[in-house]
């Protein structure tokens, strides 16, 4: 029974690993593999220095956060656990609503599968994300110089003209930050991809966690389209959590509708 509770705790700890990367304000082969003995990626073709890239990234993230007034989307959460206790599986579909500056609401549309996963992972994840939107917590999660040190690893060609690959290292080992690599679009200076692991192990029972996130440009914003987190359980087994984001509906502060609403509220 104690082993079962430990496994459940490890599975539940996935929620925090996803939380630190799931905020739209970030939009922002093996993970963190040992590169010793391998050639250092070239940065000679990078148009900007690391300081210039980070300056642009932080500034544009702040601008996008101010411009995004309202966001609605459908999310599909799926978690599969495979281990010596047997397989467990669950899926939940959620309607998520964000209103600037820090309001997040979730409506569960459907759910199937393991009650342990539904109650101890998915619901905890939604509650944690609402807490993470609060200003004090959100400040600790931002991708900026207050929370991270940055290193330019390489500059890669892309369909949009190029992107910078940065190594990010947290300045403090807390549950709100991660270490790994981020890909930054060279035109919009938004995070397009992340490969990382939590800076602080969310549970003793979790041996290792690997996180991959993909972002896509929707209107003027770079927003999550898919997250995948894999946790390896210390007592055996693996839990894979995926979140797919679709059907975005956005209100931009620069849109005619938003300007009309702002004028009605301010009288200007």
Q: Can you walk through the features of this model?
A:
This protein is an alpha+beta fold. The protein has one domain (2-28, 45-263). 26% of the residues lie in helices and 42% in strands. It has 6 helices and 10 strands; from the N terminus they run αααβββααβββββββα. The protein has helices at 2-12, 14-19, 50-67, 115-132, 135-141, 256-266, and strands spanning 68-82, 88-99, 103-113, 148-156, 163-170, 178-185, 191-198, 206-218, 221-233, 238-252. The chain has a 10-stranded antiparallel sheet. The relative contact order is 0.21.
Q: Write the element-wise H/E pattern from the N-terminal end onward.
A: HHHEEEHHEEEEEEEH
H/I helix tally? 6
Q: State the shape.
A: globular
User: How many structural domains does the protein architecture include?
Assistant: 1
Specify the structural class: alpha+beta
Percent strand equals 35-45%
> N-to-C terminal Cα separation, in Å?
64 Å
Secondary structure blueprint with pairings:
Elements (H helix, E strand, L loop, with lengths): L1 H11 L1 H6 L30 H18 E15 L5 E12 L3 E11 L1 H18 L2 H7 L6 E9 L6 E8 L7 E8 L5 E8 L7 E13 L2 E13 L4 E15 L3 H11 L2
Antiparallel strand pairs: 1-2, 1-10, 2-3, 4-5, 5-6, 6-7, 7-8, 8-9, 9-10
Helix pairs in contact: 1-4
């Amino acid at each position: 029974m104690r082993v079962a509770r430990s496994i459940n705790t490890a599975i539940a700890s996935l929620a925090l690993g996803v939380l630190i990367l799931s905020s739209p304000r970030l939009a922002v082969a093996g993970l963190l593999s040992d590169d010793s003995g391998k050639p250092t990626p070239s940065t000679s073709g990078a148009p900007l220095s690391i300081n210039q890239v980070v300056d642009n990234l932080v500034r544009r993230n702040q601008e996008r956060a101010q411009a995004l007034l309202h966001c609605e989307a459908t999310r599909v959460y799926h978690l599969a656990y495979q281990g010596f206790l047997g397989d467990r599986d669950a899926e939940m579909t959620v309607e998520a609503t964000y209103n600037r500056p820090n309001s997040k609401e979730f409506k569960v549309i459907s759910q199937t599968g393991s009650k342990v996963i539904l109650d101890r992972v998915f619901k905890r994840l939604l509650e944690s994300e609402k807490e993470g939107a609060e200003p004090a917590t959100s400040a600790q999660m931002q991708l900026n110089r207050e929370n991270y040190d940055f290193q330019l690893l390489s500059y890669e060609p892309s369909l949009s003209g190029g992107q910078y690959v940065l190594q990010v290292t947290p300045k403090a080992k807390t549950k709100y930050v991660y270490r790994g690599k981020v890909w930054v679009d060279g035109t919009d200076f938004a995070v397009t991809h992340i490969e990382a692991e939590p800076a602080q192990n969310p549970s003793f029972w979790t041996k290792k966690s690997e996180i991959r996130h993909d972002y896509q440009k929707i209107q003027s914003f770079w927003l999550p389209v898919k997250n995948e987190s894999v946790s390896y359980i210390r007592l055996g087994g693996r839990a894979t959590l995926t979140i797919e984001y679709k059907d975005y509906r956005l209100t931009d502060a620069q849109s005619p509708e938003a300007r009309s609403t702002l004028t009605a509220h301010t009288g200007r």
